[in-house]
């Protein structure tokens, strides 16, 4: 099953509350053989991840199935913080 860590949801919550997209959240999308994020309005069929009681990431059932081995985490690098997308093995 798709895993989004608490650190990743907190990062998305922080980034989202600094934007002016009311009623929208990040959406996990398939891009060029991988995954990325876009802003969208959640639907009732979506898998929803929350932080502090707010929706921060929505995933369609089709994308959730394709991303079943995906782990989204927060990565700290010398260049700054950002999300990492890795595949769970085994």
Summarize this, please?
The chain is of the alpha/beta class and 90 residues long. The protein contains 2 helices and 7 strands; from the N terminus they run E-H-E-E-E-E-H-E-E.
Descriptive labels:
alpha/beta, Hypothetical Protein Aq_1857, Chain: A, single chain, three-stranded mixed β-sheet, 90 residues, globular, 20% helix
What features would you describe in this structure?
This protein is of the alpha/beta class and 90 residues long. The protein has a single domain, classed as Hypothetical Protein Aq_1857, Chain: A (Sandwich). 20% of the residues lie in helices and 48% in strands. The chain is built from 2 helices and 7 strands, in the order E-H-E-E-E-E-H-E-E. A 4-stranded mixed β-sheet has the order 3-2-5-4. The chain has a 3-stranded mixed β-sheet with strand order 1-6-7. A hairpin with a 2-residue loop joins strand 4 (47-51) and strand 5. The chain is globular. The mean pLDDT is 91.
List the helices and strands and how they pair.
Layout (H helix, E strand, L loop, with lengths): L2 E2 L1 H12 L7 E7 L2 E7 L6 E5 L2 E6 L1 H6 L3 E8 L2 E8 L3
Parallel strand pairs: 1-6, 2-5
Antiparallel strand pairs: 2-3, 4-5, 6-7
């Amino acid at each position: 099953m798709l895993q989004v860590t608490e650190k990743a949801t907190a990062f998305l919550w922080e980034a989202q509350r600094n934007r002016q997209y009311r009623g929208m959240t990040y959406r996990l999308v398939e891009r060029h053989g991988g995954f990325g994020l876009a802003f969208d309005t959640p639907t009732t069929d979506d898998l929803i991840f929350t932080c502090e009681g707010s929706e921060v990431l929505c995933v369609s059932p089709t994308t959730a199935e394709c991303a079943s081995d995906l782990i989204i985490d927060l990565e700290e690098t010398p260049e700054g913080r950002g999300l990492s997308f890795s595949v769970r093995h085994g």
